[in-house]
Amino acid sequence: MPWVTRVSAEGPTWARIDAARLLRCQAEWICQVCGELLPRRAWVILTPDSYILGDAAMHATCLTIAHRWCPYLDRHRFDAVETDFSAIYADDRRLDTIAEYGEEIRLWSL
């Protein structure tokens, strides 16, 4: 189960995101699948208009897991791209130029 998936007393709520965890992924460069720190270069899944699906990055191994188990990814054709931390934009600002990320989830793109 992805680290950012919302979990209630009844279990995981698929297709719902734990906003606090997603914000941590964005602000601290954490993998959205396993919740561990990412290396400077990581993988993202791009929509056709170059937005990053899920607005967070992941390890190569976690990308493989996501492609295998996520029915949404299985039904759609998206490109997976290895990218550097500095190539990502958060609400049209380069990620590596944001000193204080803040408390709001941002829209990521390449």
Provide an overview of this structure.
The chain is an alpha+beta fold and 110 residues long. The chain contains three helices and seven strands. The protein has helices at residues 19-28, 60-69, 71-75; strands spanning 5-8, 11-17, 41-46, 79-84, 89-90, 93-94, 108-109. Strands 6-5-7 form a three-stranded antiparallel β-sheet, with no helix packed on it. The chain has a two-stranded antiparallel ribbon with strand order 1-2. A two-stranded antiparallel sheet has the order 3-4. The model has no long low-confidence stretch (mean pLDDT 91).
The mean pLDDT is 91
Please compute the radius of gyration using only Cα atoms.
13 Å
Biggest sheet strand order reads 6-5-7
Strand content: 25-35%
Distance between the termini: 26 Å
* Low-confidence parts: none
SSE series: EEHEHHEEEE
Principal-axis shape equals: globular
Largest sheet: 3 strands, antiparallel
What is the number of E strands? 7
The number of helical runs is 3
Helix share, percent: 10-25%
Secondary-structure-based class equals alpha+beta
